[in-house]
C-alpha cells in the first residue's frame, strides 16, 4: 500500500482495535463476516470502483456498504463503513484493508481464549510441513480448482486437529488465496500474530533442537539486540554442521559452519 492507503488502514485499525478487545472470542465471528466483505469486493469490479471513488460522497458509500452488510453484526458494518469513507491509493487496497481487519479479528479471538501462541506455532509448523510438498502447495493456490476442493485439501492436512483459529485461517488461505501462494499467506499470518503479541519472530536453523534454556538465552540476546521481545522458532536441519542461522524479518544472521567455510573459500579465491 502507498501512503494514503497506509494511513487509511492505520486509522481503521485504531478504531477497530478497541472493538476487538471488547468482543473477545466473538472476534472470530466478526472476522468471518469481514471475509465475506472481502469476497464481495474481489468478485465485483464495479463495487470496488464505486466504494473507492474519491469523488463519491463518503456517507453515500457508507450507506451502500450498510445495505450490503444488512445481516452482519453492527460492529462489522461500522468497521466497513469506516473503510469506505476513507481514501485509497488503489481500488484493490480497500479489499486488502478489509482482509487485514478480518485477520486481526480472528487472531484477537485466539488472543482472548488464550490460544494465540498455539496458533502461531501451528501455522509455522504447517508451513514447514509443506516445504517438500510441491504438488500439494501448487494445488492449494490453483485457481482452476474449486475453492471448496482447496478447502477440503487443507481439512485433510490439518485432520481436524489444532486450535479452531488455526483451522479457520489455514482454510481461508486456501479458499481465498487472493493472488498469493499458500505458504506466503501462512507467513503473512505468522507476522500478524507476532505483531499482535508485540513480539518479533526469529526463525533459527540449527543442526539439533535447542533446549528450553538455550531458547530462552537466545531470545534474551536477540531481544536486547533488537530492543523488543523476540520469540524463537527453531527449524532443525541436519545439513547444518554447527552454529546457528537466525532470521529476524528480512535480516539474516548466518553463523553456521557451512557459512563460515563458504566465506573462507571466497576470501581465498579473491
Features:
single chain; 270 residues; alpha+beta; 3 domains; 4-stranded mixed β-sheet; 13 helices; 4 strands; 66% helix; elongated; transport; cell membrane; ion transport
Brief overview, please?
This protein is an alpha+beta fold and 270 residues long. 66% of the residues lie in helices and 9% in strands.
Report on the structure:
A 4-stranded mixed sheet has the order 2-1-3-4, with helices on both faces. Strand 3 (244-248) and strand 4 (251-254) form a beta hairpin. Helix 2 (27-43) runs antiparallel to helix 6 and helix 9 runs antiparallel to helix 10. The chain folds into 3 domains: 1-113; 114-197; 200-269, no CATH class. The mean pLDDT is 90. Helices cover 66% and strands 9% of the residues. The protein starts with a helix and ends with a helix. It has helices spanning 3-23, 27-43, 45-52, 58-68, 74-85, 92-113, 116-129, 134-140, 147-158, 164-175, 182-196, 212-226, 257-269, and strands at residues 200-206, 230-236, 244-248, 251-254. It is of the alpha+beta class. This is ATP synthase subunit delta.
Amino acid at each position: 500500500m502507498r501512503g494514503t492507503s497506509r494511513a487509511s488502514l492505520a486509522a481503521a485499525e485504531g478504531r477497530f482495535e478497541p472493538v476487538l478487545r471488547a468482543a473477545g472470542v466473538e472476534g472470530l465471528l466478526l472476522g468471518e463476516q469481514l471475509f465475506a466483505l472481502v469476497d464481495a469486493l474481489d468478485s465485483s469490479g464495479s463495487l470496488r470502483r464505486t466504494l473507492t471513488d474519491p469523488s463519491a460522497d463518503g456517507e453515500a458509500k457508507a450507506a451502500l456498504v450498510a445495505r450490503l452488510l444488512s445481516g452482519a453484526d453492527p460492529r462489522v458494518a461500522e468497521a466497513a463503513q469506516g473503510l469506505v469513507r476513507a481514501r485509497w491509493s488503489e481500488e484493490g487496497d480497500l479489499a486488502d484493508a478489509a482482509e487485514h481487519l478480518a485477520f486481526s479479528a480472528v487472531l484477537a479471538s485466539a488472543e482472548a481464549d488464550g490460544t494465540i501462541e498455539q496458533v502461531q506455532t501451528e501455522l509455522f509448523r504447517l508451513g514447514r510441513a509443506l516445504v517438500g510438498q510441491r504438488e500439494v502447495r501448487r494445488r492449494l493456490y490453483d485457481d482452476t480448482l474449486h475453492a471448496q476442493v482447496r478447502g477440503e485439501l487443507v481439512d485433510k492436512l490439518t485432520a481436524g486437529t489444532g486450535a479452531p483459529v488455526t483451522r479457520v485461517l489455514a482454510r481461508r488461505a486456501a479458499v481465498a488465496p487472493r493472488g498469493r501462494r499458500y505458504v506466503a499467506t501462512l507467513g503473512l499470518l505468522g507476522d500478524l500474530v507476532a505483531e499482535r503479541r508485540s513480539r518479533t519472530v526469529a526463525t533459527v536453523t540449527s543442526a539439533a533442537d535447542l533446549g528450553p534454556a538455550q531458547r530462552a538465552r537466545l531470545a534474551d540476546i536477540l531481544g536486547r539486540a533488537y530492543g523488543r521481545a523476540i520469540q524463537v522458532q527453531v527449524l532443525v536441519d541436519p545439513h547444518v554442521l554447527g552454529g546457528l542461522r537466525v532470521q529476524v524479518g528480512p535480516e539474516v544472521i548466518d553463523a553456521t559452519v557451512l557459512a563460515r567455510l563458504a566465506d573462507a573459500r571466497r576470501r581465498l579465491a579473491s
